């Protein structure tokens, strides 16, 4: 089955509602690099595992469109408007879920997942109507690269499929892929700057200077102010600073004054 979506001109700004805006947040799931997934719409051509009407025993081929951090309005396919996961088939078209914010998460399982809810109503196997939903799970594989182009208005074939199955009891479509971006990288710790290192080294050195110098002076029988290492220098330091300021400012004021008398 081949379905060609009526794609709007991607060079023109989208004039629809604000739900078309992308919801990508670069660091919403720390440790995972999933930017490539958000840079295109991904399609799966399926001969089975499609969502079919409960009244039909035959499952026709379908195409599944998946958009991460955006919706599918620009495909101009019903019922894809407002959806993030959409099935297009001769037998039945379905919205399999959407997301108004970043769909990625990694809290429930040790993997990267994207979850989409509030799809079309569907009569479950227990005859209770529920809304279709989709959970996409990405498993780490360093070689599983998802290559994209320069436009988010691009439909590409989804690679590295692991499994796909629809559970009619829970109205949930489960899809699994291999993906290099699902290989979690260690979080970078803040590095100490060079200035901080200098301050730390200076502080430790000065502390050791005071402690060791004082111990040496005590061992030599000194007491009072004389315990302080080089106490004469530290006592005279305020005077040295004062004289330095006086010398600097007095020299500057002399240069600004005129050496000639007015005639």
UniProtKB/TrEMBL annotation:
Record's bilayer topology term: Single-pass type I membrane protein
Primary localization: membrane
Keyword Transit peptide carried by entry: no
Gene Ontology cellular-component annotations: Golgi membrane; phagophore assembly site membrane
Any one GO BP annotation for this protein: protein transport
Signal sequence coordinates: none
Transmembrane segment boundaries: 192-212
Matching SUPFAM superfamilies: Mannose 6-phosphate receptor domain
Keyword field: Membrane, Protein transport, Signal, Transmembrane, Transmembrane helix, Transport
InterPro entries assigned: Autophagy-rel_prot_27 (IPR018939), Man6P_isomerase_rcpt-bd_dom_sf (IPR009011)
Cited Gene3D superfamilies: Mannose-6-phosphate receptor binding domain
Localization, UniProt: Preautophagosomal structure membrane
Stated name of the protein: Cation-dependent mannose-6-phosphate receptor
Lineage: Eukaryota, Metazoa, Spiralia, Lophotrochozoa, Mollusca
């Amino acid at each position: 089955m081949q379905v060609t979506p009526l794609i709007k001109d991607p060079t023109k700004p989208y004039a629809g509602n604000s739900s078309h805006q992308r919801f990508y947040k670069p660091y919403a799931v720390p440790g995972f690099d999933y930017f490539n997934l958000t840079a295109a719409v991904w399609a799966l051509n399926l001969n089975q595992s499609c969502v079919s009407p409960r009244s039909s025993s035959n499952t026709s081929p379908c195409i599944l469109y998946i958009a991460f951090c955006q919706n599918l309005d620009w495909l101009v396919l019903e019922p894809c408007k407002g959806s993030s996961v959409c099935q297009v088939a001769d037998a039945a078209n379905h919205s399999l879920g959407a997301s108004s914010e970043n769909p990625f998460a990694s809290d429930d399982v040790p993997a990267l997942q994207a979850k989409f809810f509030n799809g079309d109503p569907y009569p479950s196997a227990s005859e209770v109507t529920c809304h279709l939903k989709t959970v996409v799970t990405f498993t780490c594989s360093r070689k599983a690269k998802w290559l994209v182009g320069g436009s988010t208005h691009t439909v590409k074939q989804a690679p590295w499929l692991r499994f796909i199955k629809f559970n009619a009891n829970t109205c949930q479509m489960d899809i699994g892929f291999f993906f290099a971006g699902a290989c979690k990288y260690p979080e970078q710790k803040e590095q100490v700057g060079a200035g901080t290192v200098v301050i730390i080294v200076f502080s430790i050195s000065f502390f050791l200077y005071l402690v060791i110098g004082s111990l040496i002076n005590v061992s030599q029988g000194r007491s009072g102010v004389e315990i302080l290492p080089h106490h004469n220098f530290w006592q005279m330091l305020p005077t040295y600073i004062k004289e330095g300021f006086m010398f600097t400012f007095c020299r500057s004021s002399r240069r600004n004054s005129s050496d000639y008398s007015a005639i």
